[in-house]
Amino acid sequence: MDDELAERARRAAETAALYNALKHDSDAQVGAIMGPLMGENPEFREHGDEIPGVIAPVIEDVNAMDRGEQRDRLGELAPERVEELEAEGEEDDQVLPDLPNAEEYDDIRMRCAPNPNGPWHIGHARMPAVIGTYAEEYDGEFIVRFDDTDPETKRPLLWAYDEILEEIEYLGFEPAAVHRASDRLETYYEHARDLVEMGGAYTCSCPGEEFSELKNDAEACPHREKDPETVAEEFEAMVDGEYDPGEMVLRVKTDIEHKNPALRDWVAFRLIDTPHPREEASDYRCWPMLDFQSGVDDHLTGVTHIIRGIDLQDSAKRQQFVYDYFGWDYPEVIHWGHVQVDDYDVKMSTSTIRELIDAGELDGWDDPRAPTLPSVQRRGIRGQALVDAMVELGTSTSNVDLAMSAVYANNRDAVDDDAPRQFLVRDDFDARAEGADKSYAAIEVPVDDGPDSAHPAVHPEHEDRGERHIPVGDAVLVEESDLPAVGERVWLKGYGPVRYDGERFAFLDADIDVVREEGVDVVQWVPADDNVTVRLRTMDGDVTGFAEPGFGDVDPDTVVQFVRVGFARCDRHDATESVAYFAHP
In the chain, is it the N or the C terminus that has fewer CB atoms within a 10 Å radius of its CB? Predict the structure, then answer.
């Protein structure tokens, strides 16, 4: 990042931090600033790894001011933002807009309706993040309903049901109820029978192309006026599996002249010969289409508010015909745009990710390069960091961009205080992402005349947590890029100053002022002999390196900060190496 862009980032961050602090009457946080900053300044996004370090000092300065100073300074920088604060008042702290007509309902009930055809990608987290937050705000209920009534095209995976529930728990929510649509076929049949009896549905054996032509010409299908008794008999034959797929469907009778052809006499049930993978549903052959199944379930489970994509507006209109036949009130609907996530080369698509895994191009759903919840969780990203970033996007009908740097900033705020510090010297890089060209080399350098060991703090801001003991031995490893020129000095972090003579480090009698006043670089290091081999899995590839000996005692699932490298989650300790997953800088 050049100086001009860095200065722009600082100015934008100062305004945002001042506004945030005054609005919430609390200290501004890097995580809360990053989302709006990236959203309003797309040119910052490619520097997402650097931005937090650039703006953190600015935010610290803002937090050091009292409220009067903050308001005065915001008035100098952006007087219109002060006007916004005055207009909003203290009651507008919430990020999400109010639910429409919420006061008309005794209880708020919202649903998340995943298809269990694989783990969730990051975009899927938006729905539970938002409806879970709404449920908490309104003291309502968050329902999970697995829409698994397509055993062929979107074939469910048996293990994905529990996987998705675990991902919801990872995000910090507990559903009030869990339903599987494939358990409810008889319920859908009963409602279809009632609809047939009302004259609101008919069986149709028209070939698909033939019906499509009739529909597009606003002409009625010849089967539309069958008597309900015949329709009922043919529907029972569908339920009994007496037809082949494509031979017969059940259609909801709507308005054949409706201005939107997609709403004309839409299919409610069709035949599928592929058995459902769940044993409980494997004998069924007559399956409801999503609009029928979902519409019935929303009513029966008491859903009051539905959030769905702007591209699914026709679903509500189709379902409204069914609701009108039964005399039901349709839930409130909020339509929103799609969310796009940066920082990934892999398309955010469950089917695409599965194809890459099957082809061996990804190691699995939790590969660091996969934009999935299992991946970010394995990297040490806390679910709340993702939820906060998703909620910040709101419910706009426009497409929105999620900057992963905002998620990382949230996570940094969450884990930094607990993360013990560790040294890691990188040695090799196995590039796996296109264009990844990093290179590292660990250089062994003998050390003369220095202490036998170093005792850096476990955490520099928590002296009560004690010190690490790192034996030095006869030599240390440093990264080649950190090796000073011959005759120059460097400060081995936690150990002290040394001078390089071209072959060895000589310990010097100097204090930290050489760093502060003379600009001597501070670098990480590890003992050449007593260290732990580490494989650090990153989005760009695997980095091999050496950690200080204490890393071997770090419990799996602990997030550490590799000094000057970044935060990482300890995954496991194998016989020949320890494995960690890189989270973010």
Answer: N
Question: What gap in Å lies between CA 560 and CA 532, rounded to an integer?
Answer: 15
The beta strands (E) that lie in 97-140 are given as 109-112
Structure tokens belonging to residue 72: 């005065």
Interatomic CA distance for residues 233 and 235, integer angstroms:
5
Distance, CA of 56 to chain centre? 24
Q: What is the strand order of the sheet 566-573 is part of?
A: 421-422, 559-562, 566-573, 578-584, 532-537, 541-547, 424-431
* Measured CA angle at 571 (ends 569, 573), to 5 deg: 130
For residues 287-302, give the mean pLDDT: 98
Cβ partners under 8 Å of residue 548, min gap 6: 422, 423, 424, 468, 470, 526, 527, 531, 532
- Nearest of 45, 126, 584, 208 to residue 399 by alpha carbon: 126
Q: Name every residue whose Cβ is closer than 8 Å to that of residue 566 and which is 6 or more positions away in sequence.
A: 582, 583, 584, 585
Tokens linked to 87: 């207009």
pLDDT in tens, 464-513: 999 999 999 999 999 999 999 999 999 999 999 999 999 999 999 888 88
**Integer angstrom CA distances of residue 305 from 7, 254, 317, 331:** 44, 24, 15, 5
Q: pLDDT of 90-128, one tens digit each?
A: 444 567 999 999 999 999 999 999 999 999 999 999 999
pLDDT at 160 over 70: yes
Paired tokens of 202: 């008919």
Beta carbons within 10 angstroms of residue 512's beta carbon: 12
pLDDT at 433 over 70: no
Q: Which residues, in sequence order, are CB contacts of 580 under 8 Å at separation 6+? A: 534, 535, 536, 537, 560, 562, 568, 569, 570, 571
Residue type at 139 in one-letter notation: D
DSSP collapsed to 3 states, 488-526 = CEEEECCCEEEEECCCCEEECCCCCHHHHHHCCCEECCE
| Whether pLDDT at 49 is above 80 | no
Give the alpha-carbon dihedral of 293, 295, 300, 306, to 10 degrees: 130
Rg (CA), the chain: 30
List the structure tokens of 545. Answer: 């390196």
**Higher pLDDT, residue 356 or 94:** 356
Separation CA 197–CA 44 (nearest Å): 61
Task: Name which of 292, 285, 191, 210 is nearest 251 in CA terms.
Answer: 292
How are beta strands 505-507 and 442-448 bridged, if at all? parallel
User: Of the candidates 159, 130, 133, 129, which has an alpha carbon nearest to the alpha carbon of residue 146?
Assistant: 159
